[in-house]
Amino acid sequence: MAIKRNRHRPPIIIPEFVDMNEQVRLPGKMPSPVDGTLRQYALRVPEAIEECSGIIVFGRKIKSLVFSTDLAIIKNINADAVFAVYPFTPQPIIAESLLSAADIPVFVGVGGGLTQGRRVVNLAMFAEMQGALGVVVNSPTSGLVLTKISRAIDIPVVVTVTEKDTDFRRRIDDGAAIFNVAAASDTPDIIKAIKDQYPDVPVIATGGPTEETIRETILAGANAITYTPPSCGELFKDSMARYRKGLPHG
Question: At what angle do helices 187-197 and 211-220 cross, to 10 degrees?
């Protein structure tokens, strides 16, 4: 028996390339936000951060990074990622704890200041195997160590910049994929210097304490902002004051 073939087969449609940096407006208005009774007290990053372009890492767009290793903070904030850098020798068990508990990507600090040499390379390899989206090294990290890290892992190396006279070209050649500018009041000027020379290099930066300082940092060229939240002790002050008066939270 002959098989009848469909002569009206629909054409194959090849989707066009979509620029992930370009915002696409869909029909209909923005729906109301959804909050729960308990989770409505969660932390929110400053709204000004939404004005930056963001950095796309493995298909994820990241605009805000919470600068914290406090799991309670990390689980109760709407940041896009975690910036887990702390002033002690990095330990894989700390990275493992953060990566297990966080439901957002984590950039893990692996040293480069107090911790140097082969240990930094090994910590970066551990972080990748544990699931980190990227690793962060401190500004004193040598070019040799930076090169070894970039060759050993397949996730981006974020290099911290603290001084105006940094040789950005050299750092890029050594393996920096992203710059993290943390230079206090000099931050906007350093960002401008980077972007004037290398406009396509992604830049993360500290935004400062106010919406105005965050916008200044973004206008300078920062693609993503690290936000330092208040500590649990600071957040508890208002709650404890209300509890002492016999009032509910909120």
Answer: 20
